[in-house]
């Protein structure tokens, strides 16, 4: 009898609860971008965890919150459709005894699915044991769930216990990916996300939601020494363009320098990164532009 298990686990939760940090921790490598700003993850990022027990394919969904524009609608649709396609859902929450409107909206979505739910209480390194117990008690009555696992994605606490819990809900079956596969994301997409991550971290709060990053070209030099990458940051307003470029190009240079470090680690090669900035007014509410930047509602 086949003892190998393989299946899909969706990671859901409000923005900023640490979903991407948790997935990166479980995989052991940085794939999903992390930021303290909302709407960091825009597409489902598929990563793969393989061990002797089996294989877990993680889908890191966009944060579930009420949509404010067409991009928001797309992200919500991605997150909600994912929940019905997986073997188990990991609902990531913070260690609190108060359930706010954002969490109640997620509970509303979770009542519509039959998928087993593991409630993962993250950031337990930041609170006392008593507060963790209060949080467990609070979420115990929130919705129908399979189990509750407290973890610290940042410190790596209880991660193995969580992986063991996930395997309980996966079916027996063959592995979907080779052992050395960690993501199905095209390299270009990850490179674009690494640039966007640095823009999110370095720019003013109101600007990041209105940016997208397009890789215009990515070529290895014939001698194999350097990869040349040309990328464009798309923003919604002329005033934003000025802020992204910065005084004498200082901000754009800073974004490029920080992003290049992550890209070189990802590609294991020297990178020559050139960035441009273009204004596309209201791109987050324009179907054709959303499609051009990789968000296609029709594919849902």
- CA radius of gyration is 20 Å
Estimate the helix proportion, in percent.
25-40%
Across the major sheet, the strand order is 2-3-1-4-5-6
| Number of domain units | 2
Would you list the SSEs in sequence order as H and E?
A: EHEEHEHEHEHHEEHHEH
- Label the CATH architecture of the largest domain: 3-Layer(aba) Sandwich
Distance between the termini: 36 Å
Stretches where pLDDT falls below 50 for ≥5 residues? 32-44
Sheet having the most strands: 6 strands, mixed
Q: How many strand units?
A: 9
CATH class of the largest domain: Alpha Beta
Q: Into which percentage range does the β-strand content fall?
A: 15-25%
Spatial shape: globular
Number of helices: 9
By CATH, the superfamily of the largest domain comes out as: P-loop containing nucleotide triphosphate hydrolases
Name the average pLDDT.
79
Structural class: alpha/beta
* CATH topology description of the largest domain: Rossmann fold
